[in-house]
User: Which sequence fits this backbone?
C-alpha cells in the first residue's frame, strides 16, 4: 500500500463546535504519538466558518521528493549524458559502450592468431593422414586441434560483434607441409611444434587480457579468463605430457603404439 502526503484536508459537520471541543481536548492531539503519525506536519488548525455550523481542519506538510534512504535514481536525467547518446549514423554500432579502439584491434589480432594456429594444425593433419605416413591417431589429434582453434577464432568474432566492434580478418601465412626430422622423427617434432604454438597462444591471450585491464574493460577481461585462460594451460599440460612420452619411446614401433592409443582412446596417457 502506498500513502501520499497532501497539503490540506477538510472535514465538515453540522456539530462543528462540539467536535472542535472534543478534538481540542483529546489527549491524542497532544501526545507524542501524533508526531509519529504526521512526521512532516508543521501546523494543525481548526478555523470555524462564519456561520459557526461547520469547520475545516487543515494541515501544513513540509515534505521533499527524496527517498528516505538518500539514494535517488533519476533515469530521465541520467540518460541525458553524452556517453549514453544513441548514434544516428547508419555505420555506427548501437550496442557499443565503453569499448575502446585498442580493445577492438587486439581482439582482431587474436582472431588472426587462432586462425593461424588452426591452419598449422590442419597442415599437420594432412601430413599424418598421408598413405606413406599413416599415423591416423596423430592425424585425428591435429584435426581436432585445428577445429578447436577455429572455434576459438569464431568465439572471438562473436564477442567482437556483441561489443559493437568490427571483425577484420588479417592475412594468414602459409604453413609448412613437410614435418620430417632426421633426429627426432616427425611425430616428436610435430608435437614439440604444437607445444610451442600453445605456449605462444597463451602469451598472446595474456597480452590481450593486459590490454583489457589497461583500458578498464572488466567485461572483456572476464570473457578472456572464462573462455580461454584456464583451457589454455590445460592444453599446454596435455601436450607437454605427449612430448615427454614421445621422447621416451623414441622412433619406430614406439611411435606407432603411441599413435594407436591416440586413435582408439583419444588420450595417450
Assistant:
Amino acid at each position: 500500500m502506498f500513502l501520499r502526503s497532501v497539503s490540506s484536508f477538510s472535514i465538515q459537520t453540522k456539530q462543528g463546535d462540539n467536535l472542535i471541543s472534543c478534538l481540542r481536548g483529546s489527549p491524542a492531539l497532544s501526545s507524542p504519538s501524533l508526531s509519529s503519525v504526521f512526521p512532516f506536519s508543521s501546523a494543525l488548525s481548526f478555523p470555524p466558518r462564519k456561520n459557526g455550523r461547520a469547520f475545516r481542519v487543515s494541515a501544513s506538510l513540509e515534505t521533499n521528493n527524496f527517498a528516505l534512504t538518500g539514494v535517488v535514481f533519476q533515469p530521465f536525467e541520467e540518460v541525458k549524458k553524452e556517453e549514453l547518446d544513441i548514434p544516428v549514423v547508419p555505420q555506427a554500432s548501437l550496442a557499443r559502450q565503453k569499448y575502446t579502439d585498442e580493445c577492438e584491434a587486439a581482439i582482431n589480432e587474436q582472431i588472426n592468431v587462432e586462425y593461424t594456429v588452426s591452419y598449422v594444425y590442419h597442415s599437420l593433419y594432412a601430413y599424418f593422414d598421408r598413405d606413406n605416413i599413416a599415423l591416423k591417431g596423430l592425424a585425428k589429434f591435429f584435426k581436432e586441434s585445428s577445429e578447436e582453434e577455429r572455434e576459438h577464432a569464431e568465439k572471438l568474432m562473436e564477442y567482437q560483434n556483441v561489443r559493437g566492434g568490427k571483425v577484420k580478418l588479417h592475412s594468414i601465412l602459409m604453413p609448412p607441409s613437410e614435418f620430417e626430422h632426421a633426429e627426432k622423427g616427425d611425430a616428436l617434432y610435430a608435437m614439440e611444434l604444437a607445444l610451442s604454438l600453445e605456449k605462444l597462444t597463451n602469451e598472446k591471450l595474456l597480452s590481450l587480457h593486459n590490454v583489457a585491464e589497461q583500458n578498464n574493460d572488466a567485461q572483456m577481461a572476464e570473457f578472456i579468463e572464462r573462455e580461454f585462460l584456464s583451457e589454455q594451460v590445460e592444453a599446454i599440460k596435455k601436450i607437454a605430457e605427449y612430448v615427454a612420452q614421445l621422447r621416451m619411446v623414441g622412433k619406430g614401433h614406439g611411435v606407432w603404439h603411441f599413435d594407436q592409443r591416440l586413435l582408439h582412446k583419444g588420450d595417450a596417457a
In short: The beta strands are 41-45, 58-61. The chain has a mean pLDDT of 82.
